[in-house]
Amino acid sequence: MKVAVVNTFVPFIRGGAEILADSLKDKLEEYGHQAQMINIPFAWHPPTKFVESILACRLMKISNADRVIGMKFPSYFIPHENKYLWVLHQFRQIYDFFGTKFQTLAGNENELKIRNSIIKADMGYLPEAKKIFTISPIISDRLKKYNGIDSSVIYPPLGTPDDYYCEDYSDYIYYPSRINEIKRQELAILSMKYTRSDVKLIITGKLDDPSCANHFFNLISDNGLQDKVQLIADYIPEKRKLELFANCLACIFIPLDEDYGFITIEAFQSQKPLITCHDSGCPSIFVEDGINGFKVSPDPREIADAMDRLYLDRKQTQRMGKAAFEMLGKMEINWDNVIRKLTQ
Amino acid sequence: MAIIIVTTAVPFLQDDGKLISAWLHAHLKQRNHQAELLELPFEPSIENMAQQMLALRLLDIEHYADLVIAIGTPSYFIHHPNKVIWFTHHHRCAYDLWGTEYEDSPNSDMGKIYRSLFRRADNNSLREAQKIYTNSQMVSDRLKVFNEIESEVLYPPLFSSDHFLKNDWGDYIYFPGIISEHKRQLLAVEAMQHVKTDVKLVIAGIPASATYTSRVEAEIKNGLEDKIKLVPRWITEEEKVDFLTHALACTVLTSDGNSDSYIGLEAHHSRNAIVTCCDSGGITQLVNDGDSGYVVPPDPKAIAKKFDELYRNKALARKMGERGNRNLETMNISWDNVIDKLLS
User: In terms of C-beta distances under 8 Å and separation of at least 24 residues, what long-range contacts does A128-132 make, across chains too?
Assistant: First the structure.
């Protein structure tokens, strides 16, 4: 069938959501469908633009498509009689980030009105879809809690799972991710103060705020961790990333309230266990403590302890890595499942 | 600078605007420009027109791009302080096709409102541009007459013309393009009733009208099966190159065409002469009678005479084809030139 994959995008920025939407389009074609990307730009400033963007999407028409798959606010509002949703993102600024230190809205009367418009839009327009899926139970829970909408979960697979491999379980724990406050790389670095073994930490990823680079490097040197922590605050070539996954002892991913987190899947695909925290969101759903990783409080001493355990008992670490890999199969995190459900 | 190319099109349909946009995007990136392609959905039926125009006006990409290049209709409704338009065609139903069998809105009160809306919107949005280019003199002339706006002709080049190697001027005239009344394939078929040599005709293109294509098929069955080969479908790049490589010459007989730029360019790039009609519109800018082809009245006998002339004198067919190729070089139809102009 002719499938239009609709995504909201911010020009010149390419994140996990863009990669997933593109992968979906490619896979649809691989499975014999005709697929096309439709990207709708979204303006962040000022907040009045949010409402204009919603209206623009409601006024658009997608013709000549048998199925439309909406993935993100607000492009998932574009009307179509045969629309499925596979929700990657709602607009968290007005939901769970609102009232926290991650809120960017000013909270004045005008912006509260805007917030209400968006909530009404989600509640009014999303149920038009014939089927509503999300990429994670966290997002499904939020949809239910704030908008009263039911949905099922289809976990997104990696674009190219076969690229990942396992070579060795050496001496470093690997943390690949965008570097910002929510991902809590700082917590991982501080944990290295309390490790007792020779375990090391390698962090790679682009800084959301490049001016923070010094803060992180100072954190490492001020705590005397130069020999234990390596920080590469930039994208690294894909090949190098795969190599780091393949040879690490284990991975660590300790964000606050992550909706999904491909890093979990990348770690498991490379047969490595994962350290995560109870409040990390979806990664904490995937990790069974002691089976395919360790799930601890967001406390540097507990994290350090988990790191040491992985370092000191390699056999256990390897077993956990294998269990992690097997979990992917059990949870049907593959493209067969995705394409089948989205093209029914 | 950050460049966003904007185009509007019906999903999954082949479209000249889509092709030019994709090629321009690729060529900009080849030259290390930061460029993003935004292909927005647009459904051209009259009852949905106004709301989609509003949607385009509501989108905001001002903060993302230093330059916006709008290609095709009606992508140029999008606003930006530094907007350059590469105008390819009017929504002619609101202009010269109004009051004819091709009009899409009736001469009722509502119809008149639409017509007026479209014209006013065009006049406003076009005037917002820093610069307007068109893809042919014919289109520039219409812009002047319909909207009183000046523009510069900028011929769209082929993506890459490297792959045309021609050593064979064979025994058939090649007639590419969508099969429709507008393109007048029947005229070529009727001409074949009058040829005196063994010259053949190959017609290849997507049938836009089932009725018209049936008429063409019926005429061919009228004793012309040995002389005419009809390929009523989309052909691959390989098939097209093959047809052009072994053709004697090409023919384009469109009635008052906007521009058959690609077909004309491809014919001359592949060193094929072109037989066309004096009322064929844009392509007559490319072909000089007796120089790189023939320009004759839309009469089957006149056309047949030229088909025969080329068949009898292959050396002439070759010479005219070579001249067509050299003419393109003097017209500076290249991506370097296009990019210089659009970015200046």
Answer: A128/A79, A128/A83, A129/A70, A129/A76, A129/A83, A129/A84, A129/A85, A130/A82, A130/A83, A130/A84, A131/A84, A131/A85, A131/A344, A132/A84, A132/A85, A132/A87
Residues contacting residue A113 through CB under 8 Å, at least 6 positions apart: none
HEC per residue, B160-184 = CCCCCCCCCCCCEEEEECCECHHHC
Give A-chain residues touching B60 at CB under 8 angstroms: 41, 43, 49, 52-53
What's the mean per-residue pLDDT of chain A? Answer: 94
A65 touches chain B (CB under 8 A): yes
Could you report the per-residue pLDDT of A114-164, keeping only the tens digit for each?
889 999 999 999 999 999 999 999 999 999 999 999 999 999 999 899 999
- B167/A contact by beta carbon, under 8 A: no
Tell me which residue has tokens 């009232």.
A99
CB proximity A4 to B under 8 Å: yes
Closest residue on chain B to A9 (Cα): B38
What is the value of ipTM here, to two decimals? 0.83
The verdict on a CB contact (< 8 Å) between B41 and A62 is yes
| B54 vs A: CB within 8 A | yes
Answer whether A293's CB lies under 8 Å from A324's CB.
yes
Token pair for residue B225? 């099966």
Helical H segments across chain B, by residue range = 16-30, 46-58, 109-128, 137-147, 185-192, 210-221, 237-246, 261-269, 300-312, 314-330, 335-343
Q: Which residues of chain B have a CB within 8 Å of the CB of A60? A: 40-41, 52, 55
A40 touches chain B (CB under 8 A): yes
Q: How many CB atoms lie within 10 A of CB A340?
A: 13
Choose, out of A2, A60, A80, A83, the residue to mutate when testing the contact with B (most B CBs < 10 Å): A60
Burial B290-310 (b: 16+ CB within 10 A, else e): eebbbbbeeebebbbbbbbbb
| Neighboring chain B residues of A10 at a CB cutoff of 8 Å | 64
Q: In percent, how much of chain B has pLDDT > 90?
A: 63
- What is the rounded CA–CA span in Å between residue B156 and residue B133? 10
Q: What string of DSSP letters covers A108-135? A: -HHHHHHHHHHHHHHHHHGGGSSEEEES
Q: Which of B252, B249, B259, B253 is nearest to B325 (CA)?
A: B249
- Quick check: A45 and B51 CB within 8 A? no
Which residue is it, tokens 């006024």? A59
User: Most B CBs within 10 Å: which of A59, A75, A83, as the mutation test of the B interface?
Assistant: A59
Determine, for residues A59 and B39 on separate chains, whether the beta-carbon distance falls below 8 Å.
no
Q: What is the pLDDT of residues B178-221, one digit of tens each?
A: 899 989 999 999 999 999 999 999 999 989 889 999 999 999 99
Tokens representing residue A249 in the block:
């002892």
Q: What distance in Å separates the CA atoms of residue A6 and residue A89, rounded to the nearest whole number?
A: 13
End-to-end CA distance of chain A: 10
pTM of the model: 0.82
Please tell me what DSSP assigns to residue B238: H
Contact B240, B166 (CB under 8 A): no
CB atoms within 10 A of CB B103: 18
Contact pairs from chain A to chain B, CB under 8 Å: 83
Chain B residues near residue A33 by CB distance under 8 angstroms: none
